[in-house]
Amino acid sequence: LVLVLDFGGQYNQLIARRVRECNVYCEVFPHTLSIEKIKEMNPKGIIFTGGPNSVYEKDSAVCSVELLKLGIPVLGICYGSQLMAHLLDGKVATAPVSEYGKTEVAITKNDSKLFTGVSEKTICWMSHTDYIEKAPTGFTVTATTPVCPVAAMENETEKLYAVQFHPEVMHTVEGIKMLQNFVFNVCQCAGDWKMDSFVESTIQKLREKIGTGKVLCALSGGVDSSVAAVLLSKAIGKQLTCVFVDHGLLRKDESEEVEGVFGPNGHYDLNFIRVDAKERFYNKLKGVTEPEAKRKIIGEEFIRVFEEEAKKIGKVDFLGQGTIYPDVIESGLGKSAVIKSHHNVGGLPDCVDFKEIVEPLRLLFKDEVRRAGRELNIPEYLINRQPFPGPGLGIRIIGEVTEEKVKIVQEADAIYREEVAKAGVAKDLGQYFAALTNMRSVGVMGDGRTYDYAIALRAVMTSDFMTAESAQLPWEVLSIVTTRIVNEVKGVNRVLYDCTGKPPATIEFE
Ligand code: XMP
């Protein structure tokens, strides 16, 4: 175990993730974690993160100087490096100029264990206003920049290392090498941790935490909720109940697929409740055309259905959620549960009686969740699912939602996905789907006039879904998809391709 002590920096989980990428287990804990607890955990190394404060501020995050005297290797990053200098007898001050962004750092101690294999001049990512003016007694300065007299320092005997820059971000070109050096050369970690160890230890921890309690989970069939449900099922079996609400706005055959995997004839030991709430949702959405109103209705109705099912089960002890780390960041630390459910299910159900939330994936990034899913033998098509919005096809049908329109968009979307997959171009796309415009136009089919809907095809490339570029799908693929849609989907006589990026458009249509 390598322990990351969180002093409020932005990249804390990224540090942990980088260490896990070295096959060394790593977890983030608040900087207030007690020395006793740390001794008990017996980590091979500790990393102090960055943070927004100056060590001189009254309320700045600190830790005990004792931590630097346990003989456990410590790496201080940014604020963490200043804190190390400050706790010992070094000097921290406001830098004459702040350094932000890519900065050339000169390594001044070539035989430093932290910089083995690192170039003498290396590009690092800086983001600081304070700096270490003077290293503490016993420390050697190991790197400098034109601004920083101490861009890195170390006390090899005490196994204390500090860097002003951020080795965890990709802009620090040799940052991964430095972190590898820390965990292997300095901390002597074995590097034999694998995702299956995460899976095993998480199952163990869930068992301990839940005991004989009952857990209720809303399962959407998306990657996160599926992996969370499988971990819980492995841990507590039938003490887990998963409620899957079919709101009638899912992709073609999706409801049956989810039931196939998680239902009574599926692969897992859990109670599965599929609620067919199509009619309820369609009724509520009748005549509603305003996008926000539609979203709200879908979100609220989801909660009502979920609550009704939960009430039938009676008191539960825990509510299981598939919150992952980016959700935690998005919503501000500590408030994740509320926001995630907001995002996906429109808020936590008030009347479900539970005492605590369990979030087994809270520390993982999406690709790590997928790796955990593979370890758990979850079918590949579930693991590689594209993101699908909580309000489902409701926001891919412009204007009023009707059962007929849902069928049209489901069929068109299934054809589109099938052909994109067949053409082998799916791997470059962040998200791609068909939407039903509310536009009808004149066409000619056979010898007759038609007046039917236009389907819009969308495909975007994105890594963070905050911005996106429209993808240039091969014309042959678009052409096959178009022919198939107008021939096979009744009610459609025109297919359009959306060439807009985000911004100015959003990925979804409403
Ligand atoms: P937009 O349309 O905002 O979408 O560019 C960005 C990403 O978020 C997904 N999305 C949602 N996901 N609940 C969700 O869980 C929602 O209400 C929701 N709205 C959009 C969208 O599919 C895309 O991946």
SSE topology sketch:
Layout: E1 2-6, H1 12-21, E2 26-30, H2 35-41, E3 45-48, E4 74-77, H3 79-87, E5 91-107, E6 121-134, E7 140-144, E8 152-155, E9 160-163, H4 175-186, H5 195-210, E10 215-218, H6 223-236, E11 240-246, H7 254-262, E12 271-276, H8 278-285, H9 291-313, E13 318-320, H10 325-330, H11 336-345, E14 356-358, H12 366-375, H13 380-383, H14 403-423, E15 431-445, E16 448-461, E17 469-470, H15 475-488, E18 492-497
Helix pairs in contact: 5-6, 5-12, 6-12, 8-9, 14-15
Bound molecules: xanthosine-5'-monophosphate.
Xanthosine-5'-monophosphate (XMP) binds at residues 343-344, 387, 389-391, 431, 465, 502, 506-508.
Tags for this model:
510 residues; alpha/beta; Rossmann fold; GMP Synthetase, Chain A, domain 3; 3 domains; 9-stranded mixed β-sheet; 5-stranded parallel β-sheet; globular; binds xanthosine-5'-monophosphate
Give a brief rundown of this model:
This protein is an alpha/beta fold. It contains 15 helices and 18 strands.
Model description:
The protein is of the alpha/beta class. It has three domains: 185 residues, Rossmann fold, CATH 3.40.50; 189 residues, 3-Layer(aba) Sandwich (Rossmann fold), CATH 3.40.50.620; 100 residues, GMP Synthetase, Chain A, domain 3 (2-Layer Sandwich). Helix content is 34%, strand content 24%. It is built from 15 helices and 18 strands. The strands form three sheets. A nine-stranded mixed β-sheet has the order 2-1-3-4-9-8-7-5-6, with helices on both faces. A five-stranded parallel β-sheet has the order 12-11-10-13-14, with helices on both faces. Strands 15, 16, 17 and 18 form a four-stranded mixed β-sheet that branches. Helix 5 crosses helix 12, helix 6 packs across helix 12 and helix 8 runs antiparallel to helix 9. The longest helix has 23 residues. 43% of the residues are buried. The structure holds xanthosine-5'-monophosphate. Xanthosine-5'-monophosphate binds next to helix 11.
